[in-house]
Amino acid sequence: MSEISILKSLKNKDYKPVYFLTGEEPYYIDKISDYIEDNVLAEEERDFNLSIFYGGDSSMDEIISSAKRFPMMSERQVVIIKEAQALKDWRNKDKTELLAKYLAAPLESTILVFQHKHKTLDGRSEIAKTIKANSVYYESKKLKEYKVPNWITDYVKSKSRNIDAATSALLTEYLGNDLSKIVNALDKLLILVKENEQITSLHVEKNIGISKDYNIFEFQKALGTKNVLQANKIINYYSANPKAHPLQLILPSLYTYFTRLIKLHRLPPGENAAQFLRVSPYGLNEFNLAKKNYNAGSLARVIGHLRKADTMSKGVNNPSTPAEQILKELTYKILHDPK
């Protein structure tokens, strides 16, 4: 089942005895579990009928014993196991068989929820097969990064606001595909922006702390378009704020950017370029512009410059050159490399 269908059935009070929520993306796991925790029981029923366990501090015996308990002055009880991936009993066959027996005949008045985050059970194991067959099993997969800007746009629209493509791309560049971090940032902005108004990079800069002019996204753009003036403005800003913009974070981003340019030159015929590079359609436009400024030979040299800067930043054959100087020399070499 998808997270949408699970939440729809929960809102319709179509409750099931067992939910096993697992996978690499915790956002939807939390969203489903939080809905159950906050909405199934009335506030006055929770003291006696809501049990929260943490995997690292609990045993399967305690969990099953609680699940078998009947509710007190309520139609049902809720038992939630948070951080279930830390439950040591997953490696104990006797304990997993205890869970398997419960799953075969769960108590209808209990809603048992497992939050098994960041990974899944071994699909070949008997307990994994039993869980899939006898529960609402949901696997939350990481959203591919090139899909994140559209996800941000849809989320903002669902809150009756708008956001421009550049700002969605900026948030993606800084927050990656961690949906929980993205939602936390967006919710801060949604408080400040009225219905039907648009979130812009100015809102992001003022309230999230990401500069619209001096972020890594703009630095990559300046290098890609060989905008010498803008690139130097940005590295001067970085040099004046080294703690906020450490070289150790800048170099990996540049390496990813230029390796994507290499991939764009090698794009197979008929391949969807945005998906192939794992960038948004908005981001693809900028890569196409940069492609005109860097051929295969110049890109190979840029990668060489980046690798040398990386070793220097780690002190290899470099006893004294500061990070700011390494970045300035790197920027000069990239911008002035012959095509």
What does this structure look like?
The chain is an alpha/beta fold and 339 residues long. The protein folds into three domains: 3-140, 3-Layer(aba) Sandwich (Rossmann fold); 145-207, Helicase, Ruva Protein, domain 3 (Orthogonal Bundle), CATH 1.10.8.60; 216-335, Zinc Finger, Delta Prime, domain 3 (Up-down Bundle). It is 55% helix and 10% strand. The chain contains 17 helices and seven strands. The strands form two sheets. The chain has a five-stranded parallel beta sheet with strand order 2-3-4-1-5, with helices on both faces. The longest helix has 19 residues, at 247-265. The mean pLDDT is 92.
Keywords:
alpha/beta; Rossmann fold; Zinc Finger, Delta Prime, domain 3; 5-stranded parallel β-sheet; two-stranded parallel ribbon; 7 strands; 55% helix; 10% strand; elongated
Offer a concise description of the structure.
The chain has 339 residues and is an alpha/beta fold. Helices cover 55% and strands 10% of the residues.
